[in-house]
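Please review this pair:
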Amino acid sequence: MQLPVAVPQTVNEQVQHQPSADDGQFVPNFLSPQMLDSGVDFDTHFREFTSFLDGVGLSAEWSPFFGDPDRHEEPIDPGLTQDDNEETSPRQGAPTRAGTPFSSWLPSAPTGNRISNYVSDTDNPRAIDPETRPFKVTEEQRLKLKTSILDHSHLLDPAFCVPSRHALTRYVTSFFGGFHTHMPFIHIPTWQINDHSPELIFGIAAIGAQYCFESRASERLFFAGKALLMERLRRDAHSFGVSSVPIPHAVPHNGRRSDAGNDAAVETIRALITLMGFATWEPKASMVQESFALQGILTQVLRNSGLEDVDEPASPTPSDQPSDGNSLWHEWKTWIKQESNRRSKLIGFSFLHTHSIAYNVYPTLRSNEIGLRLPCSTKEWKAPTPALWRTATKEIQEPQLFFREALSLLLKNKNDTAPLLPIPTPLGNYVLLHGLLQRIHIVRDLSLPVTSSSAVLPSEEVEKLERGLRSWTSCWQQAPESTLDPNNENGPIPFTSSSLLSLAYVRIYLHLGPYRQLETRDPQRIANAIAGSPDIERSDGVIAALLYSAHMIGIPVRLGVDRVARSQAFFWSVRHSLSGLDCAVLLSKWLSKLGETLAERPLSDSEDRILHWVRCIVEEAYTVVDFDQGADTDNPTLLDFRDPSNLCLAVLKIWAHFFKSNTQWPFINIIGVGLEKYREILIHKNIG
């Protein structure tokens, strides 16, 4: 494997014209030829992580490669001392492509008025962005929605009323600007609100109201949507083989159903995704139970709707012969339905697994059940007209792989090259990563000894999983759409995937699932559970997980902890916070173990570099973040970051502050308070 020694020339060109440090981040050449010539034997994990940073344009600052690891008083950013005239050469062995993410290794946090742009007064055509106009709800559309639920008004709370057209516009716009960017299963160019069921519209509005910080309205909309959904399930159970009461062992639908039945099932899947998506992250424990009930129903509907792309092409191949507008329009609409259905099912699968990650429940829908093709390219999906769609489709040389096939190839691959052809799209890579995470969960569950909940994965399985993750990363790096700036046309999915990649590495070595108890929504119980989780042993294997954990905390520190926390709705999803929790605990446990064992076991070179990297990140955060006053003020020795035990507490403090500052989902605030209380437990333990 050849070690990359420089970043592409595009970085040099971009740095020269960046208007401010805020708009473009400098990526230093952190693997200089001088370092390679010095004969330093870089650890394999560091090489892989360097390739990861280099390939996706992530921050090279606070890198474990710059200088000697014990130079604690040196500047944090070595790039500041680099000669501006120094030229860089193209990265060896890496593809160059248009839209390379080097121009923005991390997303810019939305500006102060970014959120308000999504909720502007839609009555004034001059005050609204053109992209928000499809989401404007007219009074006529609102009345149609209201009329459609009149026959079921007895099912709803007597106090419930359909929100005004202004409120509906606000909610729908916020849903598509926030939640949907992370899980794009509705075709926005052809979106019409009255084409969809009331339960889906209310589910969308419930999430949108939450993004608008209107909690009471969001909860009312959720229960209205759920009531309508349950009535539809009761009335039309024969259409997709499910009742309103979960059936433990529903038989999958293997036959070909009618178009009407399939459309009804997929619309129900979409409604379930939105309703479950709302309930899963609500702060009330009772709402968590609602999400579990919806989880069972979603699993049934997905199975019975059919999870196989049997005898269907990945996308219709446009004819080379001229065609009239009507036939092209029909062809496009047929493809939209097919791709929307596929995406709804794949995203339903991925969200079920996100629920499994959050609450440590055995996956209800397994990867081997998914016989669907991976999603199409962003260009095809976002094409606003039939003609542009045809142009985008003609650029596709071969159809996307089937999910099962692609996942199998990742796990079988023996080297670091990308084994998948064609390279999956960002959403396809995201779904595949859920498949790899699910394997970690299932293999660990099968490896669990009866008397212990801290099972260590078999070494051969660890090797296979890490090989699969490296193969996945290689595919991700080569995907033309895998830029990390969510403000571009491809959205925040690649950035979200980077956090799940960190989670995957952490979960190989830390079995935190049973020790979080997030479903209780009780910060003290969460803290006590984490305190009882297994320790992390010092080993060469855990280095990769530590690298990604350090990078996870480096992201908000680099962008500004409070800045990101208060404006994160459009690129920092709940999945980032779930990943951040596991990364925070793993890194803090490792630092604590260092403090306990350093006297009898010196640091390895890899450990020394990671320790130095974490110290730089912590010192940067403590310089600028306005932390709450606490035990640190009364005990200044906790600010001595030469002690790994103090770094352990500092890492927890940064993450706790970040989670508590979240303004979007109160559930994340609960995680922050839980981490804060866990930190207090460690402080009292050390004092005792």
